UniProtKB/TrEMBL annotation:
The gene is Dere\GG19601. ATP binds at residue 160. Its EC number is 2.7.11.1. GO terms for molecular function: ATP binding; histone kinase activity; protein serine/threonine kinase activity. Keywords: ATP-binding, Kinase, Nucleotide-binding, Serine/threonine-protein kinase, Transferase. Residues 124-602 form the Protein kinase domain. Residues 59-104, 286-320, 352-393, 608-631 are annotated as: Disordered. It is an enzyme of class 2 (transferase). This is non-specific serine/threonine protein kinase. It comes from Drosophila erecta (Fruit fly). PANTHER family: CDC7 KINASE, ISOFORM A-RELATED, OVARIAN-SPECIFIC SERINE/THREONINE-PROTEIN KINASE LOK-RELATED. GO terms for biological process: eggshell chorion gene amplification; embryonic development via the syncytial blastoderm; endomitotic cell cycle; mitotic DNA damage checkpoint signaling; positive regulation of DNA replication. Residues 286-296, 357-372 have a biased composition (Low complexity). SMART domains: S_TKc. Residues 373-393 have a biased composition (Polar residues).
Length: 658
């Protein structure tokens, strides 16, 4: 029998759903400049084989090395874009996209939900699977007690069925976020939560939405503005609670183009802004242990346990599990013996069996040693004057005030072994992690989400999705360095107390050039254009910094005469400025969601809109013309009225000028 932990009455008088229609009316559209990644994205192509037929042509990008251009998709033939409504099972005709395989998966998911949580079946008719994530399957449901109503009057719900291996704390935290913050400002709310043994399901309001893939290249500036504004509104709301969403990405920000509705979903990785209290190797140990329980289908990091430990305010309501973890953490928090006291044989023994004898006075010594160690991190120079100390002798290390001896050694030096482990969350989806996360900065803030919003904006502006696609955090950082230059990263690393070693220098690229160059890739990668710039011997110079042909150079301070981009301009200058601020490398200088909403990209448009509305209220130009014509006629009728009309016209002109 199901054990219901929280079930509010589903009597919310929400809007009755309407029969869904497709968002955009255009069938079989061929995009010459359709989306795609910098690199070939076989995963992306594989993920949606049933929905999109993609024709990739292996068009060599400009530049010899093609560091980040690689294989550019030249054409995407798509079926009519549609909202993922699950409408088929609600009496609507099945679309050709619904394959047998998809139906099977949908049925599997429904059966799984109904078997694991039988109460769901008593309350809901579950129709189809509408989303599939790392931690859950989301299904479409309608109330059984409304089954007698016509389709158009039955309310729809998104039932998020958590995978049974999801940690209870993670589920609890997600639930807390939704109950505390949800239901307003584009943030998803929750109706109820059902649990049976190890399985839990959230019942949320359902929102039919379009796939990002279908609209990100099609939006005009006002729509992009609307999209970004709504995303920032949701983030501003979440950030007011000092909560970092940590998984801001297009698939978690639902958008219904037709109804202009938005919804930020998935608070599975959300946590409070770091309190620097819990950063110990013990925490890392228990986190690792928790991590082992979770098997990920997709490369999204699972740091729930760590997040729980770092978010003290959230802990209050989390119950025994967290307390248990804290105990575990305390017991493993014991500091290591100071290096002076460790005989080499003893140390070896410790490393082998993991034993860690601790005495009270050693704790004190350890605490005294911490500032020294922190300092050491910042001073890589050695007595010999070389940048790195390659001395292998541990006793010399001690004599050298605990400097690092790891470089060029096959093992971690004693001094580093003694250091407290830096424990920084890296939860989130690859491609949306900001530099501070990639550099393992422990005191992360809501700026993490703002960076992710910037990446989404960059995808929209450049028509490249996903924009960053690195297999690991190092390459992800290298991608950021490629665009923003090494100086910005070095400075930020210094500001964040992190040390970063880069093998080469790189100058920053210009975001406007980057966006327009990618947006119009077919134009700038055209063979004819290349031919027109080739020298007589058929060669064309390539910029060493950005790896692009000189006429397409993307560098901020380019030394080349490049092709003019003005004819291809699509955005106002304020858009690039906002993009730059959202993607500020230093999290301390990054714009907040609240500030971003006051950026001229939004406010200037609002002012223009206001003026337009005022004009409408006072008469549109067309109306005015008609009025003038009528006036003219009247004037002809009476010379007396002529004066009046002229005065009126002058008044109107003066008013318009204002
Ligand atoms: N309220 C909702 N209405 C409509 N669809 C929804 C709703 N909530 C979630 N979905 C769909 O389900 C998908 C997965 O949901 P969610 O992100 O919450 O799960 P997840 O397991 O955490 O996924 P991921 O690992 O991709 O973040 C979403 O991308 C969306 O398409």
């Amino acid at each position: 029998m199901a054990d219901r932990v929280l079930c509010q009455e589903l009597a919310t008088t929400g809007n009755h759903y309407r029969r869904p229609k497709t968002g955009v009316a255009s069938a079989n559209v061929v995009y010459a400049n359709g989306g795609g990644s910098w690199r070939a994205a076989p995963r992306q192509a594989q993920r949606q084989p049933r929905q999109t037929v993609q024709q990739y042509a292996n068009t060599p990008a400009t530049g010899t090395a093609g560091r980040h251009v690689g294989r550019a998709p030249t054409a995407i033939v798509e079926e009519q874009p549609r909202e993922s409504t699950g409408a088929e099972v609600m009496g609507l005709p099945a679309t050709p996209r619904t394959t047998k395989q998809a139906r099977n998966k949908s049925e599997e998911a429904i059966n799984d939900l109904l078997t694991r949580i039988p109460d769901v079946g008593k309350l809901f008719d579950v129709h189809s699977r509408i989303g599939n994530g790392t931690f859950s399957t989301v299904l479409l449901g309608t109330l059984r007690r409304e089954s007698h109503l016509p389709d158009s009057l039955r309310r729809k719900f998104a039932i998020k069925h958590h995978i049974p291996t999801s940690h209870p704390d993670r589920i609890m935290k997600e639930l807390q976020c939704m109950t505390k913050m949800g239901g307003v400002e584009n943030v998803v709310g929750i109706h109820c939560c059902l649990r049976c043994d190890a399985s839990a399901a959230f019942v949320m309001p359902y929102m039919a939405h379009d796939r990002f893939h279908d609209f990100y290249t099609r939006m005009d500036v006002p729509e992009i503005r609307l999209y970004m504004r709504n995303l920032l509104v949701a983030l501003r709301h979440v950030h007011k609670f000092d909560v970092i969403h940590r998984d801001v990405k297009p698939s978690n920000f639902l958008y219904n183009r037709r109804r202009r509705e938005f919804l930020l979903v998935d608070f599975g990785l959300a946590h409070h802004v770091n309190l620097p209290a819990v950063r110990s190797s013990g925490a890392a140990t228990s986190f690792a242990a928790a991590n082992n329980n979770n098997n990920s289908k997709r490369p999204r990091e699972r740091e729930t346990m760590e997040a729980v430990q770092q978010s003290a305010p959230a802990d209050a309501g989390l119950g025994g599990a967290v307390k248990r973890m804290r105990l575990h953490e305390e017991s493993s928090k014991m500091p290591l013996k100071p290096v002076n006291d460790i005989a080499p044989s003893e140390l070896q023994q410790q490393l082998v069996d993991g034993s860690n004898p601790v005495q009270p006075q050693q704790v004190q010594q350890q605490q005294q040693q911490q500032p020294q160690l922190a300092q050491m991190d910042q001073t890589p120079s050695t007595p010999s004057g070389s940048k790195y100390n390659t001395n292998r002798n541990a006793s010399t290390a001690v004599a050298n005030n605990g400097k690092c001896f790891c470089f060029a050694n096959p093992s971690v030096c004693l001094n580093c072994l003694m250091k407290k482990e830096v424990h920084a969350s890296r939860a989130g989806t690859p491609g949306y992690r900001p530099p501070e996360v990639l550099m393992k900065y422990p005191d992360q803030t809501t700026a993490v989400d703002v960076w992710a919003a910037g990446v989404i904006f960059l995808s929209i502006m450049s028509s490249v999705y996903p924009f960053f696609k690195a297999p690991n955090d190092f390459i992800a950082l290298a991608e950021i360095v490629t665009i923003f230059g090494d100086q910005a990263i070095r400075k930020t690393a210094l500001a964040l107390d992190r040390m970063i070693t880069l093998s080469q220098r790189s100058r920053p690229l210009n975001l406007r050039k980057l966006c327009l160059r990618f947006r119009h890739r077919s134009v700038f990668s055209d063979a004819k254009l290349l031919k027109s710039h080739e020298s007589v011997d058929g060669k064309c110079e390539v910029c060493r910094n950005c790896d692009q042909y000189f006429f397409n150079c993307l560098c901020e301070d380019s030394e080349y005469l490049t092709e003019s981009l003005d004819a291809y301009e699509f955005f106002p200058p304020s858009a690039y400025d906002l993009l730059q601020r959202l993607l500020e490398i230093n999290p301390h200088n990054r714009i907040t969601a609240e500030e971003a909403l006051k950026h001229p990209f939004f406010t200037a448009a609002e002012e223009a809109e206001q003026t337009e509305q005022d004009q409408l209220a006072n008469g549109t130009p067309r109306k005015m013309r008609r009025q003038r014509y009528q006036n003219h006629k009247t004037v002809a009728a009476s010379p007396e009225q002529l004066k009046q009309q002229v005065a009126l016209d002058l008044q109107q002109a003066a008013f318009n000028k204002l």
